[in-house]
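Supplementary Text 2. Reproducibility record for the structural model of the 119-residue chain.

All settings were left at their defaults, and a single model was retained for analysis rather than an ensemble. We include the record here because the model underlies the residue-level annotations in Supplementary Table 4.
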Amino acid sequence: VQLQASGGGLVQPGGSLRLSCAASGSFFSIGLMRWLIQAPGKQRELVASVASGGSTNYADSVKGRFTISRDNTKNTVYLQMNSLKPEDTAVYYCNADVLNSGSIYYTYWGQGTLVTVSS
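Retained model, structure tokens:
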């Protein structure tokens, strides 16, 4: 199972970006999908998550600005980021709980994509 993240880049404060993370390989199903960030010198932290049924959760710092969604037919999770701030600058990682066989979900990680918010 591989997760491929894309969509990062340089954006001005107040701008928008959309991140994507696609899962590929052989598996039965995907449970929770998440976006996490790691800013320079800081620990990785959860930004948003979305369950297979579509229910979502957000960190307080991004509520009202970021929207997480998923397309189960494409095994892809998205993060729409609006009203970006310089403090959103970080490497953004996706991960997903994947059922390969049996009844145990394993968490797989994408490679990370850099988002820089600067004028």
